[in-house]
Design goal:
The chain is an all-alpha fold. It has seven helices and no strands.
């Protein structure tokens, strides 16, 4: 009940922001680019070890990320390229933030840790593969959004870990859950494609006896496609 109330309040605030922005009639693609810039700023803060500030910037950046599509719909400026650009810049924003954390753990400071730099790099690869498998699978099956660690969940984990100063635990969670989600999507796609190929098999039926071709019907060369 409390979660539902928070969700409703957040939705109202977001809708208010969208209406105010729509009055300015901005280019939604420009909003997507600005969102990327804010995420780059967050990545710089991560690289400097200012996790709490980076978490606050991440909140702002991802609220901004949600605005571009909504503003595009409200102003009637939805385009295929806009959707492509938004999705592409979201992936880039993810990778830039992970890169900032890798830089922090790779620097020659008291916080230097080869383990956490490597784990963050592995989590980055896992997050990319989660997105890739979804995009690739949906060329084969209708939908592939299964698994826990989608982009919103990754962002929330990063924000909570940053604000609570629990980055090592957050990195472990991102690492484990990203590959769990990746494996889940592989299995989901395998299962559905297997079911579809099974349904596509023609049922066996008795073959008609061969007969002489009709004189008025053309002969068919080759074989029918399976």
């Amino acid at each position: 009940m409390v979660g539902e109330f928070i969700g409703q309040v957040s939705q109202r605030i977001l809708e208010g922001l969208v209406r105010q922005l729509a009055r300015l009639n901005p280019n939604p693609n420009l909003l997507s680019v600005i969102g990327l810039g804010i995420n780059i700023f967050a990545a710089v803060l991560y690289g400097l070890g200012r996790f709490f500030s980076a978490g606050l910037v991440m909140i702002f950046a991802n609220v901004f990320d949600m605005l571009d599509g909504r503003v595009a719909r409200l102003t009637g400026r939805v385009t295929k390229f806009g959707a492509f650009l938004d999705s592409s810049l979201d992936r880039l924003s993810d990778m830039v933030v992970f890169l900032g954390i890798i830089i922090f753990y790779s620097r020659d400071t008291q916080h230097h840790s080869t383990l956490y730099a490597a784990l963050t790099g592995a989590a980055l690869i896992g997050s990319v593969m989660v997105s890739y498998t979804s995009a690739r699978a949906e060329s084969l099956i209708p939908k592939c959004d299964v698994g826990f660690l989608r982009r919103p969940e990754r962002v929330v984990l990063l924000i909570l870990g940053s604000l609570g100063n629990k980055m090592p635990a957050t990195i472990w969670l991102l690492f484990v859950l990203s590959y769990w989600t990746f494996a889940h999507r592989l299995y989901h796609t395998w299962r559905l494609t297997r079911e579809e190929s099974g349904d596509a098999k023609p049922e066996s039926s008795p073959q008609p006896e061969a007969s002489e071709p009709r004189q008025d019907a053309p002969l068919r060369l080759g074989h029918d496609p399976v």
